[in-house]
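Final report, Chapter 2: Outcomes

The project's central promise was a pipeline that accepts a single protein chain and returns its three-dimensional structure in a standardized token representation, suitable for archiving and comparison. That pipeline is now operational. To close this chapter, we reproduce one record exactly as it appears in the project archive, with the input sequence first and the structure output second.
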Amino acid sequence: MSESRQGYKRHGSRYKARRRAVDILFEAESRDVDPVAIIDDRRKLSRAIEPVVAPVAEYTEAIINGVAVELDAIDVFLAEHIAETWVLER
């Protein structure tokens, strides 16, 4: 595969949606809010007469919803697989 083709795959719409999902999840964690609530807020802001944020992609929303549903299982998995010198909160 050519180098330019690989760059395209890396920065396509799904890549951007995953990246935005990670950003939203990080924001939710740092602000101690529900990531689904952030999605709802962003959806409202993107539909305003003068939108202040970009619309949330369906794939981004699917990732956020999936993480919200599986959060406990994700925490258990991470706790079982992190190095002994790290704590889950880190």
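Archive annotation: DSSP finds four helices and no strands in the chain.
This record, like all others produced under the grant, will remain available to the consortium after the project formally closes.
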